Amino acid sequence: MRKRSNRMPLVLPLSHSVLLSMAVALAGCSEKKEAATSASGNTATAQAPRPPEELFASLKCRGCHGEGAMFAPALVNARSKPDETVAMWILDAQKVRPGTGMPSYADLMSTQEALSLARWIKAGNPAAPAATP
């Protein structure tokens, strides 16, 4: 007869940074990803990180999240969340909330760029355009 263990299962609360680290680890080794990226022509991780303003413009985020756009309030809501949570959402919103309309940007930017963009958004950006007289 097997002896029953009196041990409780180990359950630890996972911080957002741990979750982000796990997501990055599950995505694969960064060195392999950089090599594959360079070979495939996608330069998101093979070059220096792009500034968040450039990412916001080049990925056409303003179409959904710009002033007056349907999902502009989502950026305001994101400002109260941890950087890592916002970055995880930017990289792959489907993993955070399956069925959401937000596309994945994991193949278009690095984790470092996603964190930078998350911090930029949390700092109150994009700033509303200046009113014209």
Description:
By secondary structure, the chain is mostly helical. Helices cover about 50% and strands about 0% of the residues. The protein is built from 7 helices and no strands. Helix 1 (about 15-25) packs across helix 6 (about 85-95), helix 3 (about 50-60) crosses helix 7 and helix 6 packs across helix 7 (about 110-120). The radius of gyration is 19 Å and the shape is globular. The model is unreliable at about 10-15 and about 15-45 (pLDDT under 50).
Q: Quote the beta fraction.
A: under 5%
What oligomeric state is this?
single chain
Number of helices: 7
Shape: globular
Q: Tell me how many strands there are.
A: 0
Q: Tell me the series of helices and strands, N- to C-terminal.
A: HHHHHHH
Instruction: Outline the low-pLDDT stretches.
Output: 8-14, 16-45
**Main sheet characteristics:** none
State the distance separating the first and last CA atoms: 85 Å
Rg measurement, Å: 19 Å
Task: Give the class from helix and strand content and strand pairing.
Answer: mainly alpha
Helix content: 40-55%
Overall mean pLDDT: 75
SSE blueprint and pairings:
Blueprint: H1 16-27, H2 30-40, H3 52-58, H4 62-65, H5 72-78, H6 83-96, H7 111-122
In a few lines, what is going on in this structure?
With 133 residues, this protein is mainly alpha-helical. The chain has seven helices and no strands.
Summary tags:
7 helices, mainly alpha, single chain, 133 residues
